[in-house]
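Page header: ASSEMBLY MODEL / three components / 972 residues total.
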Amino acid sequence: MNSSPPLLSVQGLEVHFPITSGVLLDRRVGEVRAVDGVDFSVSRGETLGLVGESGCGKSTTGKAILRLVEPTAGSVVFDGVDVVGASGRGLRSLRRRMQMIFQDPYSSLDPRQSVSSILAEPLRTHGLADGRSAIEAEVRRLLDAVGLPASAGGRYPHEFSGGQRQRIGIARALASQPDLIVADEPVSALDVSIQAQVVNLLEELQKEFGLTYLVVAHDLAVVRHMSDRVAVMYLGRLVEVAPSDALYARPLHPYTIALLSAIPIPDPVLEDRRSRILLSGDLPSPAAPPPGCRFHTRCPFRQATRCHDEVPALRALHEGHTVACHYAEEIEAGSILAG
Amino acid sequence: MSLAAAEAAALVVEEGGSLRRDAWQRLRRNPSAIMGAALIVVFVAVAVLAPVLAPYSPRAADLSGIRPGFVPGPSAAHWLGLDQQGRDELSRILYGARYSLLIGVVSLGLGASVGMLLGALAGAFGGWVDNLLMRLMDVMLAIPGLLFAIAVAAVLGRKLSSVMIAIAVVNVPIFARLLRSSMLSQRESDYVVAARSIGVSRWRIVVNHILPNAVAPVIVQATLALATAIIDAAGLAFLGLGSADPGTPEWGRMLAETQRYLQSSPQLAIFPGLAIVLSVVGFNLLGEALREALDPKLRR
Amino acid sequence: MTVSAAPLLEVSDLRVVFRRRGRADVVAVDGVSLTVEASSTVGIVGESGCGKSVTSLAVLGLLPRRGVEVTGSVRFRGEELLGRSESALAAIRGRELAMVFQDPMTSLNPVLTIGRQITEVLERHKSLAGADARAEAARLLSAVGISDGVRRLRQYPHQLSGGMRQRVMIAIALACQPVMLIADEPTTALDVTIQAQILELLRRLVIDSSSALVLITHDLGVIAGTAEVVHVMYAGRIVESASRRELFARPRHPYTAGLLASVPRLDQPRSDALHPIAGSPRDTLPWSSGCAFAPRCPRRLAECTDGAPALVADGFGHELRCINPVPVEVASP
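Prediction written out in full:
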């Protein structure tokens, strides 16, 4: 474990969206608790994967870290600097060091800007290159880093395929020479045969530029491949955090277990043999999360006591492996079975 | 980098160039666009060159050929015949284009500019500014255009400028709301979020990213609104709200003055009516074609 | 592939061309032939643009009439479907041949209640009406795992979650016990735990009703758990067909092999780097010039650009469209 202070430290992060109703003036009638108390840290050079299904709050967490969405509570500290309270020039210089890669390669690039212009924008905003020739040289360097030819600069986003557009988005994120990149579903909108190319590119770039990644995704296989550690989210809270291999080999939280058993594997023999743990019902609404353990309404291991009224804390069961479940030890030992 | 080589080989360019060029290509291929553009070109040319093209002065009256119930129709000397005051119909139609074009362009230009400015402010600032401006626009929209035009004419007198002001004011809320809603929908786009994540200042985001992408539906609306403005001007003149000068060769006015000749000399109403229809159709065709050409969903 | 009775669906040399004014034609489907036996499960797998969805739409006659040219033959229960009138097709659709689409939000009418949308099908094909239709609709909802059916009937699509909407779509599709169900990316828009539920539901229902299922997807994992026979499509043609186990154990077409090799797998140790297929789906040759996959193929030979390879049986249980496929010894695990 890294003894130096983490690059990114998130504590008690909450993002609540108000639900308003009213004709002339909006009244707050409730709130969607998209992120409801999340703690984690990311060390320099590490890749942390944040997984969960839709509505779990992982995307919102990523955006909140970058202040693209305002946290309603909690703290985010980046390299010793408070992010939540930053403003003006302080926020701007933080923005230079923390960048984002977006999910949809079709909507994340301004269709009216040429590729050079898109890549030049961060350079100009932060004064990283002076004069046209310096900017052009830097744009060429960025294009080369992501495997695009220099001629791409004069073209427009709609002339490229999805995978190429995603590369442009990656080049844009690299332009300001950031320390941290939050990748929000970086490959899920791409064809399968292209995903591997982009994943490889991201890993090469990480080694080449010493980047730190927070990968937010729902595809557990991709996340496992890319990440050193993985955090699993459910309905606004973390339920399990563990090193990549340990999470797959020995999932401890019932939700993680169900999630892993649900993922189809391209091997018919394995598929036929697997016993799936099917979750019942649908995801509860983030505006009205269940009391106690949020997962208890669908948990196949639910017990009669504690689950429905006591909120489980994230606690360490093994070295570096934390779970938020009252009965994690029993489940691991096999003394409690899926009901 | 072998990967780069593969990517370079993969750079299949279907349509080169910016979106503007892409839209232009689509426009060029569209028959309605060509027809519309042709009609507009004729309209503008006639308006500009009327003094050169018109064989006679539009106000020169020759009453010698006029008898009660009879107005001379088309002849070799007067291609469209004479009107009820003995004036050359063709010259009046040609000069009428000037008035229509003038009113249309000026009133629309004024209304659209003011409207777009207000809409841009509302869209850029949001919050109470947006709220205030939109409530103001709601009030303006609630006033019937015709009543407003009559009120303006009552206050400022029966002049061409009254008509122009009335039409301009009617257009302000339309363009304000259009630009504002277009900006709002662009604001939710990922690329705007991306610009924020880079640290681009809010002002620059509005000017460099949101406005250029929000402008397309406004261009379409402007073209269509020009058609409406011409009809509105003609309509107001028909109702007597336009210029007080009886000799004005304005199409709408000509329609009003020739109502009682419909049985005996219908051509006096048909010619100005046709002129209005053709010019309006031209703008409509082009406007619809522009809408298609600029529609991002039809791309690729 | 043994054929006992006549196949339920026989597609022969299906070709779909989209004609665009002022631009080049797009050949979405370029000579696809396949059969579906009664009560079997067939999977069609491929990436975006390979023509798998267009194939299913062509089979059901759901492509627009103008600007689209459909040639070839589609025989369902011995009768030719291509070129039939809309009313003739409408009589078959829903009753004998049903389809489930990818996005239940756009395939369900947002302004009609769930109940109305189900009873609509029952009224059309089974002449049920009123209370009888509603009772049957409620029964269908419980068959697809939606509890409290009577209350749900009165709800609108936006009040249901994605998984429930997809169940409703399946209920509508199965309302008249069709002999064949085509499911086009039925779980792509859903979360993985919901996907598992829906796939399990589809599997069970198909077994219970003995209907045939054609599952179209880009997800190899989904196919691995569901289909009996798998067809792999690329650039509008089938490039490999095999039984499920054969295909995954010994993928022979370089595209299939490349696809399987490029996906990170939970059942295998983490590798240092993934093995992608070079280039992008846009780098294809037209089949008329040669093998469409040649620009990206690691096993490309000079002859590959001489002309399109035909789909031939390889003697190991595969039908392949390749002149230099992965050898059997190497492909085996």
